[in-house]
Amino acid sequence: MEYIYKFIEYINESNILSIGLIGLVVAYLIYLYMKKGEVENYLGLKLIGFYLLGAFTFDFNFDNFSLVIPIGFIVYLLFMKNKDRVNATIKKKASILGLIIVCFGVLNSMIYNSVEYRGRDITIKNISIKTLRNDYDIIKKELDINDIASVESLNLEYNEKNEIRKLSYTIKDLNNKTYFISTNGNGYSINISKTYESEDEIFMFGSMGNYNMDIETLLDVISNTKFKKYKNASYYTVIYENIENYYEENNKDLYTVDLVNYSTKKLNSKYPIFDAVDISHMPMKQVSEGSWTSTKTDTYLMSYQIDEGEEE
User: Is the pTM of this model over 0.85?
Assistant: First the structure.
């Protein structure tokens, strides 16, 4: 079945289907021209006109679906079908051809969207903190994710052995796709949706919106940074959100991360911190059967600003 999916994607994305349809339309219009009953000036152009009339539509995009109205063919049926004209039969067939191409386009769009935005499962064994970036590279290649993919959110749980208990993250790329990626028992499950439903939304917000961190950089930071560890921690939780945070001065739980060598350093700032892009790292302690709580939160800053204007 996967081969069929890939074939559908290939013929749509390589324009083979569009080129084939154009060839068929041209061939059929030539055939109709050759079947003319009477000689008529500019018949070829008139057949093209009737075809374009049959293919003319009004499209309406709603939140959950799109409505395509073949207004051109409706006009033909109401005002032109019964009018006496030379070569009326082949002109009717040309307009019907336009309607058929419209219907085929709508059907193909529905099939392609179902294939393009279908859920996927990718089998990857032995997932750990150290393999996150390699795992993503496999996912990226399999799903053809754009090189520039921003992170909306990430939630990770791992144990002392760096084994993943749970992982989920949401990313957006330049192809107007949002990917919801999470671990399962055998690897990763990926659900895909359109980021924006209309071209107007893409124009207004950009294909990815505003973002602070790309997924590859974030996974590299998580995989290579030596986060502070604690005794009696059952496991650790890592949280990232695509927001910029503010921290009061003299916060004792702030650390900086060097994005070159991933070393960390405690940040003792007597000034407030703003525009902070950061990771929250929390040791989790079991308090009862099936229940855990965080004992504290360490914040690792990947970028930030210091508000030295607060100095008296």
Answer: no
